[in-house]
Fold:
Amino acid sequence: MSASTSERTAARRTSRKPRAGAYALLILVAAIFSAPVLWLIDTTLKTPAAAVSFPVQWIPSHITWSNYAQALTLVPFFTYARNSIVIALTYAVLTTLSSAFVGFGFARLRGRGKNLMFTLVLSTMMLPHIVTLIPTYLIFAKIHLVGTYWPWVLWGVSGSAFLIFMFRQFFTGIPGEVEEAAIMDGCGYFRMFWRIFLPQARPMLATAFILSFTWNWSDFITPNLLLNLDNTTLSVGMAVGYHDSSGAALPSVQAAGAALYVIPVIVLFLLVQRSYMANSATSGIK
Structure:
């Protein structure tokens, strides 16, 4: 009896060694990925001179909380943040719904040329965004939409090739018996999409919404090209507004603005993380 007990104890010790090594590796990787965030937060608490000093001081000798106040007052922070939220939310809602609708069509409808059209949609993913930037600006300038938020509305109703692919793969995995039962009950395809398929795609909807919101929230080039300074987004306003009276950059204030800039994305992820993680966990099964 004592021999079996000692064997079990030795087995537990042996099994703990790989687990301890895995935990140590995870802690090391987490520390590496957390270092830039910690550096950013540390910079927000330094004076502008200490932020660019060398060698780097991780612990500031004097904590400067006024950097956050300057980040909010040197530029109309909340006005720019409101503009960014309006653009990102509008685009995220529209592109999520339109991509889901198109993905449903590619997954469940039948017709000639469907596979060719799907291939053409996917081929647009291989075209760099920077290549179409100037032609896009010329088109919107011709129809007098430069300086307005209408380009993001048009992009939203056009859908995203990547999200269309995601929704198409999701809706393809739903059993055909569900569609057949809906048709026998007299349900059309639009009602079928809205009442049956879309509620089942809640994890995918959360994922698509987060991705599309983040794409627009972090975008700098497109708002800088299409919008004016009075209705531009927070990313553009921060890039041109954080400097002193002589025009010199304020790195500690820029770091404080960047720390505040990521808060809406973090809050959004925390609100929908359960659905997002559920989709990530089941994506490999399908």
About this structure: Residues 50 and 56 are 8 Å apart (CA to CA). Residues 2-66 form one domain.
